[in-house]
Amino acid sequence: MDAANRSRPESYAMGHASHTKSGEQMKEDTVQTNGSINAVIPDSQLAREVTQLIRDTEGDLLFNHSTRVYLWGALLGARNNIAFDRELLYVASMFHDIGLTSLYHESQLRFEVDGANAARDFLRSHRISEADIEKVWTAVALHTTPGIPEHMHGEIALVQAGAGMDVAGRGFEQFTDEQRAAVVDAYPRGADFANKMIDAFYDGMKHRPGTTFGTFNDDFLAHKDPGFVRVDLCSVMLNSSWG
User: Fold this and answer.
1) Is 192 left (phi over 0), alpha (psi -120 to 50) or beta?
2) From CA 102, how far away is CA 234, in angstroms rounded?
3) pTM for the complete prediction?
4) Which residues contact 24 (CB under 8 A, 6 or more apart)?
5) What is d(CA 208, CA 110) in angstroms, rounded to the nearest whole number?
6) Rounded CA gap, 176 and 186, in Å?
7) SS3 39
8) What is the pLDDT of residues 182-227, one digit of tens each?
9) What is the pLDDT of residues 148-157, one digit of tens each?
10) What CA–CA distance (Å, rounded) separates 190 from 184?
11) In whole angstroms, what separates CA 192 from the centre of its chain?
């Protein structure tokens, strides 16, 4: 669908509405093994531009992670019959960790907000509707906030679910061995993925420790920096101006 004419999202099931180039099933477009997996990455102009932008901005660690987040989310959406727009889910997934990159090493916003703002600016430049942009912005902004996204639009729920699966193995048992192998073969985790992701989180937030308050992001700072002191809300309340 042409981005300029796109006014509202469409819901897709996996394997339907495939946008392949001249009928080809390329690795960038499809992860498939023995017909049991058909998680299609959109092949629209918008999606191709997102892919190139993130490739140019992130290293293999975050690029492959972001693509897997999309694939896990899309597979879960199909499995659980969750309505979602494949293109919006892809954009949100690809932008969700851009705030950890060196582009934002002077930012004092939460890295999730940096990513959400970048996605919003990108989509506005393609004249995507504000309703669709709001979904993507929220999906990126809330992807480290468990307990809320699953009660919202499918794109928002599935980005958070996909990220949780890829980083922490949450929902691991909902995928078959074949599905997991196919996704990781197409977009490898690489050796020592967990420690490398912890380093990426730390590097992206060490200059703005205050933004981790109220999230689990302070775990990354505490893990890497023995001198990091978490903010204790009880102490803040007990020592506030209210006495």
Assistant:
1) left
2) 34
3) 0.87
4) none
5) 8
6) 16
7) strand
8) 999 999 999 999 999 999 999 999 999 999 999 999 999 999 999 9
9) 999 999 999 9
10) 9
11) 20
